[in-house]
Amino acid sequence: MNYIAAALFAVALLHTFCAPLFLKAAHKNGRHSGLLHLLGEVEVVFGFWAAVLLIFMAIVGGGADALQYAETRNYTEPAFVFVVMVIAASLPVLTAVMRGVETIARWLPVPTATAKAWLCLSMVPLLGSLVTEPAAMTIAALMLAPQVFHKQMPERLKYIALGVLFVNISIGGTLTSYAAPPVLIVAHTWGWDTAFMLQHFGWKAALAVVVNGTLATLLLRAHLRSTDTLDGAAKVGQVSVTAIIVHLIFLAAVVVMAHHPIIFMGLFLFFIGYTQAYQKSQDRLIIREALLVGFFLAGLVVLGGMQQWWLQPIVSALEPKVLFFSATALTAITDNAALTYLGSLIEGISDQAKYMLVAGAVAGGGLTVIANAPNPAGVSLLRGNFRDESVSMGGLFLGALVPTCIAMAAFFLL
After folding, report:
1. Is residue 73 within 8 Å of residue 305, measured between CB atoms?
2. Would the pLDDT of 230 be above 60?
3. Helix (H, G, I), strand (E, B) or coil at 115
4. What is the pTM of this model?
5. Is 390 helix (H, G, I), strand (E, B) or coil?
6. Do residues 295 and 47 lie in contact, with contact meaning Cβ atoms separated by under 8 Å?
7. In the chain, where are the structural domains located?
8. 184, burial (CB in 10 Å: exposed 0-12, middle 13-18, buried 19+)
């Protein structure tokens, strides 16, 4: 089963890179276009191959073993990402952030459109250290969509912006000990609190985020659209202050209860009820997009849970400096939280190795869609703005390469 699981994981990785080919085939094949379009959805990939894995497990070991394996996985993170995406993308929350961005943009000595783009690429990712990375990704993606990811923006620049956004979200959550999944998963085991994160990671991450955001904005500035930050900006004026406060309270409560799925799912149901009761201050909730992202992450949990047999020996055998570069590379083909979790299982791991493992994992979190938990959310929200309505994994990798190197330099040299 280990070999079968590893093979299926490799096939799923290959599938993510080939997803645009399925979408192109869907436009040419009328009879099976629905199936091909489904297989072309990046968010479906890991859920699909996780189902295949469970079928193999049932055939090889029996249905009881497959059921036991599926039921013993921890699905808290996929459920949390689903809930926090929907709440963070609600119109009142976006309105609050948009008004804050516009206020700060007016103070900066640059054109407003340039200032907004810079704030969304630099400051909003750092906000992820407070409201968690998935929420920051959702907010940043929706605010950048009309201004940066529009039809007139050259495709090459879109991938640069996407790569910078993904890398900055991945490292921007390291100012606290609870916002970045690869940090959160080891913080309790290794005794890392927010003060420790600020001292050893936070200021380096903030510097890299600002450098990445500034360089990207300089490249994008000639093509930025000077428009309202939100596509649904026409309804912004109808959003009441009360609705903004209530939505922010829901968001804060869900973030605080991120490790208690029963509680945050209950809060989510109350949130849905509130949005139905006060529809004047609401826009469409992104239920479908968030469900697809949750499905993707749940599939990654199932498939990733069977990769420990080959990943952990690699992590445990490497010297700290080699571990840093290896962790960055491995993150591109695994989830960075899964990688740091494997590191937390190694007995007697040195403090330097702990730092290098986490630093490498977060630095490489923007290279692929599976490298960091919030990335599928960004792809889901922005892919319609790319050619053929799909995000090329090769394009994302190239777009994230330079900001990844800057993040690596910040963590390794400073």
Report:
1. yes
2. no
3. helix
4. 0.86
5. coil
6. yes
7. 2-71, 76-223+235-413
8. buried
